[in-house]
Structures are given as C-alpha cells and as structure tokens.
Design goal:
Two copies of one chain form a homodimer. The first copy, chain A, has four helices and five strands; from the N terminus they run ααααβββββ. By secondary structure, chain A is α+β, with helices and mostly antiparallel strands. Chain A binds a DNA duplex through helix 2 and helix 4.
Chain lengths: 147, 147
DNA sequence: ATTGCACATTAGAATCATTCCAAATTTAGA
DNA sequence: TCTAAATTTGGAATGATTCTAATGTGCAAT
C-alpha cells in the first residue's frame, strides 16, 4: 500500500501536475487509488464520505470530471448504466460479468495496437477509445482428472 | 432500394423470423433499414411518425428493444448519450466525430477477430462487444499538388 | 374464417443519473 | 497577506428511459 499522504502531492504524483488540488479532489482521487476497482459516482461518494463526511455528491461529480479531463483516471460506460471510474491508465478494455456484476480489466495482447486492427476513416484522430464486453464467466470442468 | 413491402415479411426476411410482427415494429424496422445511419430512439420516433402518425414514443422504445433482443438491429452507446440503433449486423466498431456529430461504422481489418486481440478472463463467454471511438476528422492537406 | 389469449400498444406518470444554479468558500499566485 | 478566479454545495432542474394499467391485436389452433 502506498503512502496516502503523498497520493495527491504534485511533488510526488506527476499525474496530477497542473490540476488545482482541493481537499475534495484529493479525497476522491484517494478513493479511486485505494481499491483498484470500477466504482460509480455514487459509490465513490459513499466511500469518500468516510474520510470527508461533508463532501457533496455534486462535488464528487465535479471532481471526477476534473480528474478525467486531466487524464488522471478514466471514465468507462456500460450500455446505459451509471458511468464508472477506472484508475488503470494503460490501454485496455472492460469485461462486465452479467452474473456477479464484476468488471474485469481486459489487457490487449502483447504488441497489439488497436489502430492496427480497424479500418479507420481517413484523417481520423482518436481522442478516446472504449472496448467493452458483456458476458458470463463459464465454470469450465477441469480438464485434468483426479489422480 | 429494396421493396419496403417485404422488409417485414417473415417469408422474405429471415432476420425477423420468430418475432411477432406488428405494424409498429414494422414501421420502426423500416425506419432503420431506410437510412443506414445511427438514429436515437427520439429520431426513430420522429421518422416513424411519417408513416404512422399515431405511434407513441414508448412503443418505439418497446419495438427497438424487441428488435435488439431478437438480433435484428444493434444498440450502440456513446458515453452517456442517448442510445443509438444500427442496422449493420457485421462485427464493427463506431467512430463518433466530435465536430459533426456523425457516426461512422469502423470495420475490422480483414481476417481480424476481436477475441484474438484481448487477454480475456478464463472462461469468459462474450454476449456483447462494443468498440467505440471518439475523435476528430482532420482535413489533411492533399499530398498531390495541383497540376 | 373465427376465436382466444398471450403479448403489444399507449399516454402519462415515475425514475434516476447527471447537470445546472447561485451563493458561500477556498485555492494558489502576486 | 490579499485577490481574482476557480471550486464547493444543496437543492432544483433536466432528460432519457422505464413503468403502469387500461385497451387493442397478431396469430396459432380450431
């Protein structure tokens, strides 16, 4: 676990450089860094209240937007559900398990670049890319038999 | 242009086989087949009213859902905007041009299969996959000079 | 062709995530 | 420290979608 005191310090965290720091943004950012999952704004709100009981939901939305605009976290959307927020900044997709509701990061295979796979329109400059998958995790019978 | 009269006829359109056909579902389906673009439910509603002025918005939502469930059209989502509906059933992504608001189908390059590119979680069975791109079309200076 | 009934349609109300508002507060640089 | 500009806040507003419950209809079986 990292030192939370420095998570939001510009001197230690270059991702936040240039972003005006408030107590609220720091609290929201720490919530996202603490569990590395994909909470909704409402879930971030609930968690943030532990360290800052007076924070408002509107502020959580504002902070999340600021962090997303700044590129410090990513926003991910599943169909029309509430937006979720993801601290993983590497290029990856998201698998949404219909059974458990869990969201799992799906890395690209080594060496793959998305733009290599798609017939992009001429002159297209990509600002944002989302790959989302929905499905079920099938419990496969083990291929190895008992001894 | 195809014969609209047969668009919704089970005998001529196997995509609809097994789906109970109503005047409203037919109107909605024809709207989607006529322009091959990506209208929202509201836009489908506006267009459908031309051929059926009494159709209701709730019904348009119902029909679109039925068509999507049946696999006759696809639903596509951009961030948290209104859902859009797409008659293209081939595997492809969507590019959303920030300037014009246009949506452009983005085919996969020949021979590419998405599952080849992603490190899927073990046992994952994919029911739905969305690839969405947002960006700008840059007008590139022509490489050829005037004669 | 008629019928029965499970499924569809409809208008309007309800929901719910998100955004807007305008006043009070806070940040960060001079 | 002081100040301007940005941020926070609670509550109201928005807007896409879903729900409700009453009415209507496709179509399989007769």
């Amino acid at each position: 676990m990292e030192n939370k005191l420095t998570d939001c310090d510009h001197r230690h965290n270059p991702k936040l450089k240039g972003l005006r720091m408030t107590r609220q943004r720091c609290a929201v950012y720490q919530v996202l860094m603490a569990h590395r999952d994909h909470p909704t704004a409402g879930e971030v709100y609930d968690r943030a209240k532990h360290s800052m009981p007076t924070i408002s939901l509107a502020t959580v939305y504002n902070c999340l937007e600021a962090l997303v605009q700044h590129g410090a976290v990513r926003q991910v959307n599943f169909e029309r559900e509430s937006s979720r927020y993801c601290p993983n900044l590497t290029e990856h997709g998201h698998f949404h398990d219909e059974k458990s509701g869990t969201i799992i990061d799906v890395p690209l295979k080594k060496g793959i670049h998305l733009s290599d796979l798609l017939e992009l329109p001429a002159g297209a400059q990509i600002d944002n890319l989302e790959i989302t998958l929905r499905g079920k995790i099938i419990h496969q019978p083990s291929l190895t038999t008992h001894p």
